[in-house]
Amino acid sequence: MDLIYRREILIVGLGLIGGSYAKALKRLGFSIAAIDAKQSSIDYALENGMIDEGYSYVNEEIVSRADVIIFALYPDVFKSWINDYQDLIKDGAVITDVTGVKSCIVYEIQEILKEGVEFIAAHPMAGREVYGVENADDRIFRDANYIVVPTEKNTKEAIEWCKELGKLLGFANISVLGPEEHDRMIGFLSQLTHCIAVSLMTCSDNEHLADYTGDSFRDLTRIANINDEMWSSLFLLNKDVLIKEMDVFIREFEEIRNLLNKEDREGLREKMRLSTKRRAYFDK
Predict the structure, then answer these.
(1) Whether 110 contacts 141, CB under 8 Å
(2) What is the pTM of this model?
(3) Which of 13, 88, 120, 214 is the most exposed place for a label (fewest CB within 10 A)?
(4) In angstroms, rounded to a whole number, what is the distance separating the alpha carbons of residues 139 and 169?
């Protein structure tokens, strides 16, 4: 299942990540077709040499000839697309995705997918506080993490193929997690942090904060500039995990509040030393 023999790639969904995949794979010499509901996104990608051809509707020919289909869609749209159009996918094709939650989608897709086509899930841990194909940039994959999310239904060949895709795209670190473990990790690392950033921005209505702030507030709230349609869906799809992570965070925040109330300097310093120690792992 070597990627070198899978030259025809179709990307369904030309947003920030789908467009960045297109740029990276086109640069590597693959034939890239795309489908996106917005004709303006297709036009932009064609004008900027990101794809070889594209359509704002499901073109049967490009679906049927694709060796690889990469889905960069919202989870519910992804499921609907498979239900409606999977008969167009040729036998032997491999499909993958970039979806931010897995347990609620991977098993269902694999259950309904026709024989002869394999779905191996993946999650590129890369993004920006902007979205849309006009902001696509394959440099966001450099130094970033890429998670392959297999189930028992996946072959070893497909798992290795997906890892190879991550390497080709330029990701620095490739990991393998099951769907449930992936969702627990993402609930903490990604979804909780977005909730914190949003809360920081919504707890004050002072319109002049930007006149006074330093880099710390800017860094903490960069991701508060958020795609509300996508992230609200992701939060709800991973609701149980996210609420548990929020509860843990609230308890930890209350501990720091109690240390302040008691004027426990040593307790505060111990929290800070632990924080510094754990943050160091990210700098390796």
Answers:
(1) no
(2) 0.91
(3) 214
(4) 9
